[in-house]
Amino acid sequence: MTDKDIWQLSATEIVARTKDGALTAEEAVSAAINRMERINPTLNAVVDSCAADALERARELDKARAAGVPCGPLHGVPVTIKVNVDQKGYATTNGVVAFKDLIAPEDAPVVANLQKAGAVVIGRTNTPEFSFRADTDNPLYGRTHNPWGRHISPGGSSGGAGAGVMAGVGALAHGNDIGGSLRFPAAANGAVTVKPGLGRVPAWNPSQKVERGMLAQSMSVQGLITRTAEDLHLSMPSLIEPDPRDPFHVPLPWRGEPLDGPIKVAFTKNTYGYDLHPEVEAALDTAREALVDAGYQVDEIEPPDVFDCGRTGYRALMGEVWTLMKDDIDAYGSQTIRDIFAVYFQEFPPFTGAELVQMMAKRSHYARAWALFTQEYPLVLTPFLPQPFFKPDRDTEGAEGVHEVLGCAVYSYAMNFVGLPAACVPSRLAALPRGPQPINVQIVARRWREDLAVDAATAIEARVGRMSDALWQRLD
Q1: Can you tell me the mean pLDDT for 428-455?
Q2: Does the N-terminal or the C-terminal CB of the chain have fewer CB atoms within 10 Å?
Q3: Which of 10, 30, 158, 181 is catalytic?
Q4: Which helix or strand (DSSP H or E) is residue 326 part of?
């Protein structure tokens, strides 16, 4: 097999070959590194190469297999890790110049779990300053570019992860999501992801000096961005393995009990007053048709109020950020990120004092409404954004820019606030005047049922095809 034949393989395909001996871990990792070294100079998705360590680890995996040691479920799969998560011996910069020498003393749970499963880390991916933009640029590493073209932002904050994996830099890309940071890059680049629900993936950074705020703890989750939905079924069971350093992790299996069919899906095009672009509407219709053809019962019905939930949740999060992070942003952030946060605080006026505590308490009200709704409708098909993905630096263009980037993204951060799983999958490639770009939809699932969301994403992908196939025709 040539390098191209190898780096284009999905994680599922790699594992099938490394386990039966048709491909060595070293070959899989070498092909991914060569791809990274070829294309990353134009993307700037990976900002810290782990190539030397990766090749050494791959050779160790091959020796262990030859000696009869059982292979892990991700044996030889090349992966990337976002630079805001600890990987022993590497800097956890979070895109901030002042943190460029913050070397991690140990691996975070997600890194440990991936490596325990046999995955090999080939590089660390870019994020905006403090991982708090839906675009990816910072003074430490510079801008990440979308492989579809520079007319589209790569998304954020896991923008390096999304751009890299879609361009063939590794088969799996780690990311995290407090308001959309897995799903924004998936939507921008045409990748697939599932934002896990609260408590599903163990999380903690050994380098951190203080504990995170309560909303950061309850809204932020760790996950993976992939090129195909089946790779989520392959890899997420390893990611959710318990780690005692996260005392609130819930050790449930990846697959839940089968539901009596047909599974009911609530379907909505409601964008709460924001204009629904025809291409987004077409993507939603395609996703609905795919699910119907796959045997789901899809009913057009309104779920609980996403706008009120999302705006309340993000205003509460901004209240926590104002209280716990603003001093660091002012001290260590660039003028660009300080200006963006100033507009965030206008778009989402922070709750403070007693009102912040009251709105944090109200979180259970919204979560209860969704819990009751998903008893009848275990899945909910929604827009992700009402418009095609925005251009780079749109969030630097004042109130109008931030409103387009985050203000209208209520379907995104509402799911963080209530802690529900939400998959994001491409269902259309739009031909727009500024150039082609994928359009993703969102699939919300009942609590603890990430597997159902990924099953639905798989059904949509079966109708549409893998977006990476269309992308690679343009890149190569």
Answers
A1: 98
A2: C
A3: 181
A4: helix 326-332
